[in-house]
Design brief:
Blueprint: E1 21-24, H1 32-38, E2 41-44, H2 46-51, H3 63-83, H4 88-99
Antiparallel strand pairs: 1-2
Amino acid sequence: MQGIITKYNENCMLCGRPTTTQHHFIFGWGMRSLAEEDGIKGPICDRCHNMADNLSDRIHDNPAAEKLSKMLGQLAWEKRKVAEGMTEDEAREAFRKRYKRSWI
């Protein structure tokens, strides 16, 4: 499934380098498989994903970036549900039920 964050998958969405992987915006606590099923992922290079020497230059192992990642994933999921006919409140509640938490 194509990700819901962007339809452009050739370049890292953080630095513009060629994409080498997909980052699942919702991860941990066994939720990566739900994120995969829902398309809550986006193109990213290995460096920005988890290989940069400096923690502030990557998503994983960077608490602030991980939190923002989850917020972005939730907002993208909710936006898609609103486009499908849910109200914003219904989409927020549906996300909470599916993922057992909210980052917004």
